[in-house]
Amino acid sequence: MREKKLLIAVIALCALIIIGWVYVGVIAPYISCRRAERAIEAVKLPEDTQVFLKTRAEQSEVNWEHVRGEKVVFCENGTEYVRLFVEENNDPEKLKYIRVWSMDTPDDMSIYAYDRMGSNPVDKETQKKMLFDGMDKYVKILYQYPY
């Protein structure tokens, strides 16, 4: 009887370890990435902006562990106009992990990096369009949260 209880306890402990491992390795990053996407989508943008590259988020270990999300919008008035609009029309608490950058800002951890585009024909067309329109009109809405 005692051996049966011990076996049940060992099986329960193993199950808890596996559940914890799955949570830390799969579920927690998924939840963090969805939180990043929701934070970016909640940012109020000027009416004349158009989504150019959809919101994406990923967990990264480049330089340190963090979650990073990005969305690229096109605005004729440029990056500074969008930055000022975002700062004036959004709650500062919502903007805690949000940054507004020009697409041509150097960034080695970027999801949508201009210099890494061009690996396929669609990306090459995107690069050409961005250069033709002017890089300062493409604005990156960035969410970065350190663990």
From TrEMBL:
<protein>
    <submittedName>
        <fullName>Uncharacterized protein</fullName>
    </submittedName>
</protein>
